[in-house]
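so my prof wants the structure for this chain in the tokens format not the other one, which i didnt know existed until like an hour ago. anyway here's the sequence
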Amino acid sequence: MSEPAPVAPVSPVAPEIIDFYTDAYDESTRLHRSAAGRAERLRTLELLERHLPPAPSRVLDIGGGPGVYAAELAAWGHDVTLLDPVPLHRAQAARYGGFAVAAGDARRLEQADASFDAALLLGPLYHLPVRADRLAALREARRVVRPGGVVAAAVISRHAPLLDGAARGTMDSEAEAERLGASLADGVNDPKTGFTVAYFHTVAELRAEWQEAGLGEADVHGVEGPLWPLLASQLAEDREDLLLAALRTARLTERDPAMIASSAHLLAVGRR
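here's what i got, hopefully its the right format
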């Protein structure tokens, strides 16, 4: 009987990422505190409700951060386990109660094969600039779901930094325009933006990685829709009508090939 192939080692999560979410940025309120965050949360939940198996099902929320989505899914009746490498996020998630919380790295999961009905990657692919790491995370998500189970993964759109900078008026110099242009070319975030180690996907790249990871054809959705730059501008914070208009527009264009990339986030969904 042949020996199993050795498993390639996984490098630790970049300390800059841990430090960013511990000391520089409060992720626990992001999806509630602005119109752009609320649009992302409402649309992501809408898409998850459409694609997840009926409750109760076993859901692994990989890189689930401070637990905003896990708490909602648990309230729907799902049996949720949240994994995250950031200790602060795990502590914040545990305060919700109602679901399990543990340390975990998306690229190397401790969970058994086919032990969940659905696996979510709603954050890890943002912070994996090396393609091999992103493929490892997608393959691990596929491994832990049962045959016919659902995998859903979010990425940041390649165009998001440019649209965000233009909407918020920070693209106010040629140097800034050049820096944003560089991220358009290679997808790698410059930490000087104030964000941390990050990667931004094109739609075609997301589809290709999905296929290479053995997940077949990705069903890709634009999350916030083409009115997202308006929300990012912070000019619509007190305009519920504009938020609702953005949500309606997102629904109408979520699979339109010409419009998908105008969203800040893309959500790919498929079945094992």
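also thought this was worth mentioning. DSSP finds eleven helices and eight strands in the chain.
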